[in-house]
UniProtKB/TrEMBL annotation, chain A:
SUPFAM superfamilies reported in the protein's UniProt record: P-loop containing nucleoside triphosphate hydrolases
Family to which the UniProt record says this protein belongs: Belongs to the GPN-loop GTPase family.
Keyword hit for Nucleotide-binding: yes
Highest taxon of the lineage: Bacteria
Name of this protein: ATP/GTP-binding protein
Coiled-coil region(s): none
InterPro entries (UniProt xref): Gliding_Motility_GTPase, Gpn, P-loop_NTPase
Database matches in Gene3D superfamilies: P-loop containing nucleotide triphosphate hydrolases
Organism of provenance: Candidatus Chloroploca mongolica
UniProtKB/TrEMBL annotation, chain B:
Natural source organism: Candidatus Chloroploca mongolica
Superkingdom assignment: Bacteria
InterPro entries: PatA-like_N (IPR025497)
PatA-like N-terminal domain ranges (all copies): 5-161
This protein's name: DUF4388 domain-containing protein
Length: 177, 270
């Protein structure tokens, strides 16, 4: 049995758990805790270690989806989770510009030193006042070749689309046979 | 739909960059404590900025000494008789009530002053109403101004690390020129010190090294480079991590196309 892995990251409350839940074949293994410290201002439950979901690709192949915890004090998990990943989805809460800097810090961490295939998902596009993908590109200063895609993490079709777009990026970097 | 947020998290210079590069049209409403500001943009250029609600009214031109009360009345009646969509500014220019350059200079100076003051706000709610346009009788700058030099001027007024740190986390980063700096960067006026630093940027020296070579402080170098970044002149990257063998960092093993294709097929079928 071969397993491959993708990582879903983003600032606190970006929608990582929701994203993995929408597509995983199994009940997502989350380690939600009642939020403490400043996170409590925004939500009641937050992921403290990671989310884990899976998609069976074939009898001999499984795709694992790992969601990173959003809070800063779990940054040490990032390195561990990202080892050997095929690619990375970076979720942004498009309605909360106060998270854009943190998002840039995350992009910087995951992307600056290695050639990780990644896409940015502009999440919560169903909410009023969501910044559009083009606006996020300017706000996050991402060059034209980086894919920034509209996303609604609670909508399975939308999550599917994000994963496919990421797979196309991975495909470009893959080798024949 | 509106773009909302706080300047604490998304600063005014970031916003100006967004408006400029996104060729945005609309009204940016700002509020901090008892203060307000309203900026109108057309296709990324600034039409007018005011710090008092009443300054969007035509009487502003009288207060600025551009028109007399009587001339303003003539302009108003001219506007009333004009086709829909005509603006007060157009009437004033067409009827030659004031030379266009004079109107330009007065409103541009007024607008720039209004914007500069905003860079001192430590925070403030913003709300950008896309496609909101000024009323027809609101005086607007005849030739809307590019926001690039406003960005640079705003950055010159930064006096603390906080804002700079998120874009330039350390002084061992290296500045690179962007491949295609934009045409209208020509509009940016740099000071001698800024030029001196710009001339030193060479894709090799870190910001700390640039500070050493120019005799500037780390803060000054970072602040100026932050300005270059914000106007889109340069980008900064970390200096590549030196590897033990002095060779390129090991490439991650490539995945097989066939494997990726299998995953793609499965997800398409879901
Ligand atoms: N309207 C809307 N709400 C969403 C969307 N995605 C997530 N949410 C909501 O946003 C909140 C945060 O989602 P989570 O999935 O818990 O976010 P997270 O990134 O896992 O958060 P942490 O684990 O705390 O970092 C929840 O209330 C979700 O229901 C979306 O696309 N649209
Ligand atoms: Mg979570």
């Amino acid at each position: 049995m071969q397993t491959v892995k993708m990582v879903v990251t983003g600032a606190v409350n970006a929608g990582k758990t929701e994203f993995i839940r929408s597509i995983s074949d199994i009940e997502v293994v989350s380690t939600e805790r009642r939020a403490t410290d400043d996170t409590r201002m925004i939500k009641h439950e937050t992921t403290v270690a990671m989310d884990f979901g899976r998609i069976a690709i074939a009898d001999d192949l499984v795709l694992h989806l790992f969601g990173t915890p959003g809070q800063k004090r779990f940054d040490f998990m990032w390195e561990i989770l990202s080892e050997g990943m095929l690619g990375l989805v970076i979720l942004v809460d498009s309605t909360r510009p106060e998270t854009f800097r943190e998002t840039n810090r995350i992009i910087d961490f995951f992307v600056s030193f290695r050639e990780t295939p990644f896409v940015i998902a502009a999440n919560k596009q169903d909410r009023p006042n969501a910044w559009a993908p083009d606006e996020l590109r300017l706000a996050l200063r991402q060059p034209a070749h980086v894919k920034i895609l509209p996303c609604v993490a609670s909508d399975r079709a939308s999550v599917k689309n994000i994963l496919l777009e990421l797979l196309y990026v991975i495909q470009e970097n893959s080798e024949e046979a | 739909m509106a773009l909302v947020g706080n300047l604490r998290d998304f600063g005014l210079s970031d916003f100006l960059y967004l408006v400029d590069r996104g060729y945005k049209t609309g009204g940016l409403h700002l509020a901090y404590q008892h203060e307000m500001a309203l900026l109108f943009f057309e296709q990324g250029k600034l039409l007018l900025a005011v710090r008092r609600p009443e300054d969007v009214q035509a009487a502003l031109l009288v207060r600025l000494g551009v028109l007399t009360a009587e001339e303003l009345n003539r302009a108003r009646s001219g506007l009333a008789m004009s086709a829909d969509g005509t603006t007060l500014t157009q009437v004033i220019v067409e009827e030659q009530l004031v030379p266009r350059e004079r109107l330009q200079r007065a409103l541009q100076a007024f607008t720039e002053e209004a914007v500069y003051g905003l860079f001192a706000w430590p925070e403030g709610e913003f709300r950008f109403e896309q496609n909101q346009r000024p009323a027809h009788d609101t005086p607007v700058i005849p030739m809307p101004i590019s926001v690039d030099h406003l960005i640079m001027e705003g950055v010159r007024r930064i006096d603390e690390w906080g804002r700079i740190k998120d874009r330039i986390p350390s002084t061992d980063m290296v500045a690179h020129f962007l491949e295609q700096p934009r045409e209208h960067l020509k509009g940016v006026k740099l000071s001698t010190t800024e030029w001196r630093l710009l001339a030193r940027i060479n894709d090799r020296d870190t910001l700390a090294e640039l500070a050493q070579k120019t005799g500037m402080s780390d803060f000054e170098v970072c602040r100026i480079v932050y300005g270059f970044l914000t106007t889109g002149l340069v980008e900064v990257q970390r200096k590549p991590r030196p590897t033990s063998r002095g060779s390129q960092p090991a490439e991650p093993p490539k995945v097989k196309k066939s494997l990726v294709n299998r995953i793609i097929h499965r997800i398409k079928d879901m």
